[in-house]
């Protein structure tokens, strides 16, 4: 497997695209058990990175909604 960038440095789109490649390669069958395990581990890390990005995006949207609702409320 070629040198891969650190998962924690990937954007959501980069992690998602690489995860799709890993899944496709696993579905085709890697040549050795060791390669399959390495791909599986990389895929797990990539899926976790995507989830982190999505959780962060949801938190930002929730915060923006709260701020927007707060701005529209009359002062007490």
From TrEMBL:
Keywords per UniProt: Cytoplasm, Exonuclease, Hydrolase, Nuclease
Location relative to the cell: Cytoplasm
UniProt cross-references to Gene3D superfamilies, sorted A to Z: Exonuclease VII, small subunit (1.10.287.1040)
GO-annotated molecular function: exodeoxyribonuclease VII activity
Coiled-coil residue windows: none
Cellular component terms per the entry's GO annotation: cytosol; exodeoxyribonuclease VII complex
EC number: 3.1.11.6
tRNA-binding recorded as keyword: no
Primary subcellular site in the record, as a coarse category: cytoplasm
Catalytic activity: Exonucleolytic cleavage in either 5'- to 3'- or 3'- to 5'-direction to yield nucleoside 5'-phosphates
Origin superkingdom: Bacteria
Lipoprotein keyword on record: no
GO annotation, biological process: DNA catabolic process
Family the entry assigns: Belongs to the XseB family.
Function statement: Bidirectionally degrades single-stranded DNA into large acid-insoluble oligonucleotides, which are then degraded further into small acid-soluble oligonucleotides.
Quaternary structure note: Heterooligomer composed of large and small subunits.
The name this protein goes by in its record: Exodeoxyribonuclease 7 small subunit
Species, as recorded: Mycetocola zhadangensis
């Amino acid at each position: 497997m070629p040198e891969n960038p650190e998962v924690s440095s990937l954007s959501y789109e980069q992690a998602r695209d690489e995860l799709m490649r890993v899944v496709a390669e696993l579905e085709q069958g890697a040549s050795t058990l060791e390669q399959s395990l390495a791909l599986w581990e990389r895929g797990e890390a990539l899926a976790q990175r995507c989830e982190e990005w999505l959780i962060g995006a949801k938190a930002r949207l929730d915060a923006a909604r709260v701020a927007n609702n707060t701005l529209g409320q009359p002062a007490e």
